[in-house]
Amino acid sequence: MADLSHKSARPLSPHLQIYRPMLTMMMSIVHRITGAALYVGTLLVAWWLIAAAVGPDYFALVDGFFGSFFGRLILFGYTWALIHHMLGGLRHFIWDFGHGFGPEARELLAKATIAGSVILTILVWIVGYIAR
């Protein structure tokens, strides 16, 4: 049997208390969160489509929910999550080709994902309100 009283000199596995949070690490976490949020948002889109198929009364109820301040806030968040997740996927696509691995390029891509998702979300909503 192994002697458990003798302490090994093996290094400990790294954990969050050792790692300094970096922008690319946070972007990875946000990418996973937006992916999970898209599941919920897709269920809401399916609810809206099912309501349209059920009939005008139920559709009016669901459309009224999405037309409320809270509903629009959810739709705005869904739009941002969709765009942010897409841009994160494009960042990974660039990495798949072996580009953008340098420290400056990683930071630039991460900042571009953040800025692009915010700007594109606002643009989509502006265009949506103008087209309305």
From TrEMBL:
Sequence positions that bind heme: H85
GO biological process, one term: tricarboxylic acid cycle
Cofactor note: The heme is bound between the two transmembrane subunits.
Cell compartments where the protein resides: Membrane
InterPro entries, A to Z: SQR/QFR_C/D, Succ_DH_cyt_bsu_CS, Succ_DH_cytb556, SuccDH_FuR_B_TM-su
MF (Gene Ontology): electron transfer activity; metal ion binding
Pfam families to which the protein is assigned, alphabetical: Sdh_cyt
Main subcellular location of this protein, as a coarse class: membrane
Cofactor: heme
Function: Membrane-anchoring subunit of succinate dehydrogenase (SDH).
Family membership noted in the UniProt record: Belongs to the cytochrome b560 family.
Quaternary structure (record): Part of an enzyme complex containing four subunits: a flavoprotein, an iron-sulfur protein, plus two membrane-anchoring proteins, SdhC and SdhD. The complex can form homotrimers.
Name used for this protein in its record: Succinate dehydrogenase cytochrome b556 subunit
